[in-house]
Amino acid sequence: MSEAEKQKLLKKAGNKKPLTQPQNIASSAPELRTASRSASKRVTEEQAATSTATMRNIWLGLALLVLVVFVIAPKPQLLEYHSAGLTTQSIYMPGWFGAEGTILDTNQRAVLAEDEQRLYLCFAEQSKEQCAKYQLRQQQGFIAATMFWVSSGR
After folding, report:
1. Are the beta carbons of 92 and 76 closer than 8 angstroms?
2. Which residue windows are transmembrane per the record (predicted)?
């Protein structure tokens, strides 16, 4: 072949455009974009679902912890007691696991003897016999103690 024939063939080959390649590239590009978008949406949705589930588990765990603490913790009581014609109401906070309780409006330790219906208020290092003895008139629960505390402005 001569040099002129080679140039003619190259020009003819250069002018021809393959029909299948551009069509495939053009048609596959939107499919690839659509596939990548749907894949990214799925990943985003999965991440959102996972984070939602994680947050829900954290809140449920926290609520369960608060419930357990509320059930185990000693609840305050409203006590009405009297001695020598003087009647008083105070909030009594029982101690944890058998420890002595306290009355919130005094620095004395409180010994509640429910079987005797008596309240003993003692200074530190005093025995039960040396304590001030009060007759219990009424014991009320957590709600009454909370209402008394709120109404007393403390």
Report:
1. yes
2. 57-73
Q: Provide the residue range defining the domain that includes 83.
A: 77-151
In angstroms, the CA 55 to CA 49 distance is 10
Domain count, the chain: 2
Q: How far apart are CA 141 and CA 118, in angstroms?
A: 17
72 alpha-carbon distance from chain centroid: 17
Q: Of the residues 53, 71, 89, which one is the last residue of a structural domain?
A: 71
Residue 53 structure tokens: 């589930």
Q: What is the DSSP letter of 86?
A: E
9 membership: H or E segment, kind and range: helix 3-15
Question: First and final CA of the chain: distance in angstroms?
Answer: 111
User: What is the 8-class DSSP label of residue 64?
Assistant: H
- Kindly report the three-state secondary structure assignment for every residue of 115-153: CCCEEEEECCCCCHHHCEEEEEEEEECHHHHHHHHHHCC
